[in-house]
Amino acid sequence: MAILTGEQFRESFKEVSPEIYIRGERVEDVASHPLLRQTVHHLAAGCDLLFEPELKDRLVVRSPISGEDIPRLGMHIQQEKEDLFIKAELTREVSSRRICSACGSNMLSVTWAMIHDVDAAHGTDYLSRYRDFIIKIHKTGLPFAWCMMDPKGDRSLPPSRQPEPTDLRIVERKPGGVVVNGVKLHTTMGPCTRFVVVAPCRALGKEDKDFAVSFALPIDAKGVKMIARPSPGPSRETSMESPLSSRFLGVEAMTIFDNVFVPEENLFMCGEWEQAANLSMYFACLHRQSKCACSAGHCDMFAGAAALAADVNGVSGRASHIQEKITGMIMDGEAGYGCALGAAVNAKRHPSGVWMPDPLIANSGLGAIRSKVGRHMEHLHDIAGGLIATMPTEADWNNPELRKYMDKALRGNPKYTTEERLRALHLIQDLAASRAAGTIMAFTINAAGSPATNQVVVRRAYDLDKQIRYAKELASINT
Ligand SMILES: Cc1cc2nc3c(=O)[nH]c(=O)nc-3n(C[C@H](O)[C@H](O)[C@H](O)COP(=O)(O)OP(=O)(O)OC[C@H]3O[C@@H](n4cnc5c(N)ncnc54)[C@H](O)[C@@H]3O)c2cc1C
User: Fold this and answer.
1) Test site for ligand 1: of 146, 186, 192, most ligand atoms within 8 A of the Cβ
2) Each residue of 446-466: pLDDT tens digit?
3) Using CA atoms, how far apart are residues 252 and 230, in angstroms rounded to an integer?
4) Out of 232-236, 365-369, 391-395, which region has the weakest mean confidence (pLDDT)?
5) To test the ligand 1 pocket, which listed residue (42, 105, 155) has its Cβ within 8 A of the most ligand atoms?
6) pLDDT for the residue 1
7) β-strand partners of 21
8) Binding site for FAD: what residues are annotated?
9) Is 283 in the pocket of ligand 1 (CB under 6 A)?
10) Is 408 in the pocket of ligand 1 (CB under 6 A)?
11) Ligand 1 mean position to 426 CA, how many Å?
12) How many of the other CB atoms lie within 10 Å of CB of 329?
């Protein structure tokens, strides 16, 4: 049962009734709510992908932990070096087709490593509980939401010194568990998942020990509430417009823990503040390696869409500036992917068995590729032309009276019908001139940590002193 079809995934919503709000109102039925449609579709399509003949041998892996066949990108604990390469390849492939490859395996793996560190330092036995949770989700095959990022309030202060703390924290220790209170932000796809997995988002001090908490709960646990932000695509059904975002991408959510009881067996860290920073470091290695491959996939998608737009406009192969721009997208993608692979080559095995890609290469690669996406969007505008922002809508095309004008005036390369040209331009609009474009930018710039965090990791990991010594040697300086 660990590998669900899209249909089985849709059906599974009948079993739960989480407390979700969207546009101010309580959601009665997640699976059928019009503002959650794209998210359910995105996740269901991800299930169906597991059955695609060309992909299934790599996308599905038998977990040594649970013995179950599971989605590699969503749930696998990466304990073989080879996992890093297969993951990078698949992440690029899936992201080039639907932007987000739902890479939950990274989150589960870095949490596994952090919990191992907690046990090693404190003599606790959290990892066996976490293992039980992993086996549970492997058996259900149902997705989880990753709740790491706290609101953080005034960034210059640690969580315990905020005037009114909102970051998630332990407020009561009881026999058999703890009570937690607070908020996690940016819970991607959260409302359409079935579990929340919670971990600290930054280094903590002794006085912050109540904020050092990690656990997992079913999404409908008492006191767990999500305020969802609709996904960027249109809420109405479309056939031409928003071809990507009407089917893919997902809701975001603010996740509230309103005095939630976490039973002991679901608790994986409880006050061990010393290891909170480890999670961020592991995340910076493993998830950013993936993000290099993910962004490479976006470059691929942009390059394909740009080449199609040039062709429907009749300028394919003619304009050298267009060829240069498309080639630039391809080269940026290859460079990002190269960093994903390079970081995997230099990976080191953490004592928990999880392989950690090289932080220098992963962060340098991500820092480089994420800075290019704005440029690529600019080039999509340039290549496709102004129509992506000014063309009449799909409803106009569907009106025969108006279509006759549009059909003539909006024709391009005779190899394509006008409708085909408009379809291609709608794709570019979705990628570069829409709310979805803003979301893609947000994924690129902030998901996996803000760009400055790439620099922080690189400064920490790079041996600049060695290079200064070499510089002195060359310049014959002895001090
Ligand atoms: C589309 C999207 C999906 C996401 N999905 C998830 C998810 O599923 N789960 C999850 O947990 N998180 C998720 N995130 C959160 C993501 O990891 C954060 O947005 C990111 O780490 C940046 O944090 P922030 O938004 O709080 O911005 P901030 O940290 O406030 O950053 C804003 C700016 O302030 C700077 N800054 C911040 N603090 C300091 C400081 N102390 N000193 C100096 N400069 C500082 C930063 O460098 C940056 O330039 C997602 C984000 C996005 C955009």
Assistant:
1) 186
2) 999 999 999 999 999 999 999
3) 7
4) 232-236
5) 155
6) 56
7) 26, 227
8) 188
9) no
10) no
11) 31
12) 26
| Residue ID of nearest Cα to ligand 1 atom 47 | 452
Query: For residue 448, which atom of ligand 1 is closest to its CA?
Result: 17
* Residue 26 DSSP SS3: strand
Q: What is the pLDDT of residues 370-403, one digit of tens each?
A: 999 999 999 999 999 999 999 999 999 999 999 9
Q: Which ipTM did the prediction report?
A: 0.98
In which band, very low, low, confident or very high, does the pLDDT at 236 lie, cut at 50, 70 and 90? confident
Assess whether the C-beta atom of 442 lies below 6 angstroms from ligand 1.
Answer: yes
Count Cβ atoms below 10 Å from residue 280 Cβ, excluding itself: 20
The H-or-E segment that residue 288 falls in is: helix 276-313
State the distance from the centre of ligand 1 to the C-alpha of 276, rounded, in angstroms.
Answer: 17
Atom 25 of ligand 1, nearest CA residue: 446
Residue 74's closest CA among 112, 106, 118, 104? 104
Determine if ligand 1 sits within 6 Å of the CB of residue 456. Answer: no
Assigned CATH for 277-466: 1.20.140.10
Kindly state if the Cβ of 9 falls inside 6 Å of ligand 1.
no
Q: How far is the CA of 470 from the centre of ligand 1 (A)?
A: 37
- Please say if the pLDDT value at position 289 is more than 70: yes
Whole-number Cα distances in Å, 411 to 32, 264, 351, 400, 423: 38, 65, 61, 16, 12
| C-alpha 345: how far from chain center | 23
Quote the CA–CA distance of 305 and 380 in Å, as a whole number: 8
Report the separation in Å between the CA atom of 150 and the middle of ligand 1, taken as the mean of its atom positions: 9
Contact call for residues 451 and 371 (beta carbons, < 8 A): yes
Contact 262, 215 (CB under 8 A): yes
Residue 46 to residues 72, 99, 460: CA-CA distances in angstroms?
11, 12, 37
Classify the phi-psi angles of 434: left when phi > 0, otherwise alpha if psi is within -120 to 50, otherwise beta. Answer: beta
Mutate to test the pocket of ligand 1, among 42, 149, 229, 248 (most ligand atoms within 8 A of CB): 149
Per-residue pLDDT tens over the stretch 248-258: 999 999 999 99
Q: Please indicate whether residue 152, judged by its CB atom, sits closer than 6 Å to ligand 1.
A: yes
How far is the C-alpha of 191 from the C-alpha of 261, rounded, in Å? 20
* Cα–Cα separations (whole angstroms), residue 414 to 242, 313, 315, 408: 24, 9, 12, 11
- The proportion of the chain whose per-residue pLDDT surpasses 90, expressed as a percent, equals 97
User: What Rg value do the Cα atoms of the chain yield, rounded?
Assistant: 24
Nearest CA to ligand 1 atom 28: 450
